Amino acid sequence: MSTPERTVGFTRTVPGNPEITGACVRTLGSNKATKQALLGFVPGLDALVTMYTDPVDEALLDAAGDQLKIICNFAVGFDNIDISACKNRGVTVCNTPDAVTEGTANIAWLLILSAARRLIEADRYARSPAYAQHGHLGMDEFLGMDLCSKNLLIVGAGRIGYATAQRAKAFGMNILYVARSRHLDFEMAPLGATRVSLEEGLTQADVVSVHTPLTQQTRHLINGQNLKLLKEGAILVNTSRGPVVDESALVDALDSGRLFGVGLDVFEQEPVVHPGLIAHERAVLTPHIGSAEVRWREAMTQMVCTNIETQFAGKTPPNQIA
Fold first, then answer.
1. What is the spatial distance between Cα 80 and Cα 319, in angstroms, rounded to a whole number?
2. Residue 108 · residue 260 · CB < 8 Å
3. Is pTM, for the whole model, over 0.90?
4. How far apart are CA 233 and CA 27, in angstroms?
5. CB-side exposure of 240: number of CA atoms within 13 Å?
């Protein structure tokens, strides 16, 4: 049996069929892969499929060797990858846009509705003996926040922000958006959104949904100072990257009662969650599962395989970012 011409490494097991024509596939297969384990896994690879938690830096590129030609991030965000280092070595970098859009917008709305209707408190209460002991609820108990005609502020006017805003129209919400440049697709029908500065938007928002990539400029974009601008009783949801939000400041805003609730799918020190969030019933928490719907995870798998096969064929991969 002849040796395959190419070796492709997946740092995690992925859904769907990762078979790549004419390649030997290796999987590290540990969700707790240490940096040392990664360095030991990559030597000899021609292509590498990384998770958003895998640091791709000079050390990893050195360990992989000069034959490494392409890195595919199994995510839309790529803040874990040193793009300059890859460019300097002639290593192509790809991601998986579009495939994460619908699932992440769905989880954003799951968090919005759960925070607005106090799902965590209600679920715990319904499971407890206290419900039967108390009897039928009065009309002034477990009151939630209505969304009809309220203002939704989208921070980061990309694909996921747009899809989240689309869903808001079904609730009769008004859309505001924050972006570095004007996005006419947000301003035209059906969204009819208004572009605002972050500070202006926070003063008007009833719900804030964060969708911006993590960069040096967006780290702690939502901080203690900005949270004080929010209307009292607002909801904040983050499905982008944890460090975009200062979690300590967020806990303070929850504890003070300024925020009605928060919904987080990502965390600043992921997978460690701030104890103040864990303890708070008005915090709805999910373990970074934004795109975790079968259809979209399989689509992501197909996208990385197509990118690699295209690279091996000497063509430009469809999702190349560098």
1. 17
2. no
3. yes
4. 47
5. 29
H-helix or E-strand spanning residue 264: strand 259-264
Annotated catalytic residue 187: no
Cα separation, 29 vs 27, whole angstroms? 5
Smallest CA-to-CA distance from 89 within 70, 74, 105, 104 is with 70
Cβ neighbors of 69 (< 8 A, separation 6 or more) are 46, 47, 90, 91, 92, 311
Q: What is the mean pLDDT of each run of 10 residues along the chain (322 residues)?
A: 74 89 87 88 97 96 98 96 98 96 98 98 97 97 97 98 98 98 98 98 98 96 97 97 98 97 98 97 97 96 96 96 94
Q: Out of 118, 183, 211, 241, pick the active-site residue.
A: 241
Measure the CA angle with vertex 285, ends 301 and 176; round to 5°.
85
DSSP string, 4-73: PSEEEEESS--SS----TTEEEEE---TT--HHHHHHH-TT-SEEEE-TTS-B-HHHHHHH-TT--EEEE
Catalytic residue of the set 211, 288, 297, 309: 288
Handedness of CA 73, 75, 78, 80 (dihedral sign): negative
200 is catalytic: no
Identify the active-site residue in 270, 281, 293, 298.
270
The answer to whether 238 touches 266, Cβ cutoff 8 Å, is: yes
DSSP calls for 155-202? ES-SHHHHHHHHHHHTTT-EEEEE-SS--HHHHSTTT--EE--HHHHH
**SS3 at position 279:** helix
φ, ψ for residue 29, nearest 5 deg: 75, 25
Concerning whether 282 is annotated as a catalytic residue, the answer is: no
Element (H, E) at 277: helix 275-279
Distance between CA 160 and CA 102 in Å, rounded? 7
Give the tokens for residue 193.
């959104």
